[in-house]
Amino acid sequence: GDAGQKIAPWTEPILQAVKTIMVINHISFNDDKVTDSNDSSSNDSKSAKQKREDRKNKPAIAEKKINVSNRNNANSNLKIFVDAMFDKFDIEIKVLDYIRGITLDNCVVIVDDAQNASRQVIKNIITRIGNNTKLIFTGDINQIDNHNMDRGSSGLTYAMAKLKHLDFVGVVSLPVTVRGRLSAAGDKYL
């Protein structure tokens, strides 16, 4: 398959996160527009001309004719939404094996699930960062699932310990898991 098909399994968490953000922010889609239930500008007293102008100012995805009310099409519609946002904001997904030799300038780099990355992989990522770039690692060291790694050998733990003293590095640790009670129990007892 093409590159998109090869990285499709890694995009599923992104689709889930977008779906969650949409629910939290009360954003939904109908046949021809993005609707924000918190937006007072979507009232019915507006003229047709004003409503058309409002639609023009909404995200580009409105032009994709998304209808997520049909549950069978929800995932494909969400993928269309994410694809449109990737196009609009120039978002790319890179496979870590293929970043050697590149320099990432003027961007934000997010490395998800970094708790499973080795020290060498973390170093490879960090040493690709160029000018005006922000690097964000996300990960939960309680959820390491690489049988060759533990909290002490995780590249994420290693990088935090070695770089946290630098004035341009910040480390944020959340005290609880955000998934649910069973996930939290797994973190604590397993």
Describe the structure concisely.
This protein has 190 residues and is mainly alpha-helical. 39% of the residues lie in helices and 7% in strands.
Question: What would the keywords be for this entry?
Answer:
190 residues; mainly alpha; two-stranded antiparallel ribbon; two-stranded parallel ribbon; 39% helix; globular
Instruction: Work out the helix count.
Output: 6
Q: Can you give the helix content as a percent range? A: 25-40%
User: What structural class results from the helix and strand content?
Assistant: mainly alpha
Q: Which parts are unreliable, with pLDDT below 50 for 5 consecutive residues or more?
A: 30-34, 40-44, 55-72
Mean pLDDT: 75
- Record the strand order, biggest sheet: 1-2
Beta-strand residue percentage: 5-15%
Distance between the termini: 37 Å
The overall strand count is 4
Order of helices and strands: HEEHHEHEHH
For the sheet with most strands, the description reads: 2 strands, antiparallel
The coarse overall form would be: globular
Radius of gyration: 20 Å
